[in-house]
Amino acid sequence: MSAPGDAGVALGLTSPDAASYGGGGPRTPLEEQLLALFDEMREPLLRYLLSLRLAPQRGEEILQETFLKLFEHLRSGRTDSNIRGWLFRVAHNLALQELRGRRNAVLDLPAVPIEDPHPDPEQQLILDQREDRLLAALQKLPETERRCMHLRAEGLRYREIAEVLHISVTTVADNLRRAINTIRKEVYG
């Protein structure tokens, strides 16, 4: 029996023809090695699969599928120097396939009626009146406040507005504050 850390190296020693999987008779050396490796790697692999947010039952299924793939891999005559890494890589890929399948699955949710995004006539009238009051309030603003509002609406920062209008940053802030207060009173009362 090899040490737990040597299990990956020792697995390539048996011939593929010697494996009689599931026959109920005596186990082949390959089967014995796989069982020992399963006992050693079951918990770490399952912990990793559960960390990917798989259900415990699905994690166990993926774990068994991983070892089945390992058995087929070794029985076909292929060997790897790092069986532990191979097991984690295969388990990881199977888990990702499961998670992608879950994400792409169509959910059976009850149909939710979609509301019309357009306002009804009454709401549209209210919006139109509010827009008219906003435009009227903008026209009533002093020229500097109106220019500050327009430039701010274009995305300019206070410092940039100050440079464009040749005024101080403090003056820009004061003009914008007064303009917003005036518009708020005119539009919302």
Give a written overview of the molecule.
The protein is built from 8 helices and no strands. It has 189 residues and is mostly helical. The chain has 2 domains: 4-104, Rna Polymerase Sigma Factor, Chain: A (Orthogonal Bundle), CATH 1.10.1740; 121-188, Winged helix-like DNA-binding domain superfamily/Winged helix DNA-binding domain (Arc Repressor Mutant, subunit A, Orthogonal Bundle). Helix 6 (143-153) crosses helix 8 (169-188). The longest helix is centred in the first third of the chain and has 23 residues, at 29-51. It is elongated and about 95 Å long. It starts with 6 loop residues before the first helix and ends with a helix. Residues 1-22 have low confidence and may be disordered.
